[in-house]
Amino acid sequence: MSFFKVLARNMPDLKLKLAQARIPDDPEFYVKKTFSTAIFLTIGLMIVAFTFIKKPGVLLFAPLIFIFAFFYFLRYADVKIEKMKRQINQEIIFAGRFLIIEIESGVPLYDAFVNLSKHYETLGPFFNEIVGKVNLGTPMEEAINEAITTTPSPELRKLMWQVLNSMRTGADVADSLNAVIDQTVRQQQIAVKEYGRKLNPLAMFYMMIAVIVPSLGTTVLIVLATFLGFAMPLPFLLVIAGVVGFIQFMFFAIIKSARPPMEI
User: Fold this and answer.
1) Where are the domains of the chain?
2) How many Cα neighbours within 13 Å face the side chain of 31?
3) DSSP labels for 92-143?
4) Cα(258)–Cα(205) distance, rounded to whole angstroms?
5) Counting C-beta atoms within 10 Å of the first and last residue's C-beta, which end of the chain has fewer, N or C?
6) Tens digit of pLDDT for each residue in 31-81?
7) How many angstroms separate the CA atoms of 88 and 74, rounded?
8) Topology classification of domain 85-185
9) What DSSP designation does 207 have?
10) What pTM does this model have?
């Protein structure tokens, strides 16, 4: 048994994560690829560090860099899943209503899936997979059940569960979907309100830390340097500008990550 297979077996949920992230690699190959990437990155950083520092002690950091890089790249599937969740949540309401209109208009469920797969960039591939499996002879219920397993979004999973349950019980699919969409809309409205409450203190901290303090602090430093006859070098000012820019970038990243992933 290879070393990479042992590592993959110690990550029992990795296979499902790769399927949800739509990464075609098997767990053993994914771990091997991540391991190789971490090694190449470590070697590259060591070469650069040794070129500038030229001390053998730099090599002592190689194991730490490798471990950090390995686990960092290993989380690529999780990052991709989270990104797909946000993209799906931006379309789920509109795609669900599109599906309801199609079904209420008398369009068969298979044709409704085909039409939906053509009109939505993020959700389209998920329904296109179902259509492709049905075309290859897989029963519709089984194809939907497989899609539920590999769906990264809980909201999309609920929608497909309602479709599947309605098919099995003979209930009206449109009514079940309406209930799911209404619940999703309420959840997204709550998320928007919570985001608004978070935004007020974030905006206040941004104004204080990223605008007021740097501008007043730089002004005070220039005035003091003028009175003391101290010439402020250009690199020092560039460092201040770089720190302020980094702080602003961090605030924008925090605000963007806190924003609810929906368009309502």
Assistant:
1) 3-74, 85-185, 194-258
2) 16
3) HHHHHHHHHHHHHTT--HHHHHHHHHHH-TTTHHHHHHHHHHHHTT--HHHH
4) 15
5) N
6) 999 999 999 988 888 888 777 777 777 777 888 888 888 888 888 888 888
7) 23
8) Receptor-associated Protein (1.20.81)
9) I
10) 0.70
